[in-house]
């Protein structure tokens, strides 16, 4: 929730973000660089900055499951919409 709130605040100030969970795979390298106490680990990270509008990375099409495929809404229109 903290990361989501931080990302929304960044966007409101004109910055772009990219959450990254791949940090988990690199914990040994991160542990070499950060003085983490025993029992603590980095589970996610985030890039923060300004997007390059013409970048090829911004052209990647990430397929997404339609919202209706995994949600049920109750009480918004007097009935339920089930997927």
Indicate the topology:
Layout: H1 2-12, E1 16-20, H2 27-33, E2 45-49, E3 73-74, E4 80-81
Antiparallel strand pairs: 1-2, 3-4
Protein model, in words:
The chain is an alpha+beta fold and 83 residues long. It has a domain at 1-53. Helix content is 22%, strand content 17%. The strands form two sheets. It has a two-stranded antiparallel sheet with strand order 1-2. The longest helix is centred in the first third of the chain and has 11 residues, at 2-12. The mean pLDDT is 84.
What composes the largest sheet? Answer: 2 strands, antiparallel
**What structural class should be given to the helix and strand makeup?**
alpha+beta
Mean pLDDT: 84
Poorly predicted parts: none
What is the gyration radius calculated from CA atoms? 18 Å
What fraction strand?
15-25%
Number of helices: 2
Number of strands: 4
Strands in their spatial order, largest beta sheet: 1-2
Helices and strands, in order, run as HEHEEE
Overall 3D shape: extended
Helical percent range? Answer: 10-25%
Spatial separation of the terminal alpha carbons: 26 Å
């Amino acid at each position: 929730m903290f990361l989501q709130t931080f990302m929304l605040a960044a966007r409101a100030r004109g910055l772009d973000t990219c959450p990254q969970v791949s940090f988990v795979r690199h914990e040994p390298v991160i542990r070499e660089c950060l003085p983490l106490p025993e029992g603590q680990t980095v589970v996610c990270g985030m890039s923060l900055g300004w997007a390059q509008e013409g970048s090829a990375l911004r052209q990647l099409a990430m397929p997404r499951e339609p919202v209706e495929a995994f949600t049920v809404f109750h009480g918004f229109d007097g009935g339920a919409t089930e997927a």
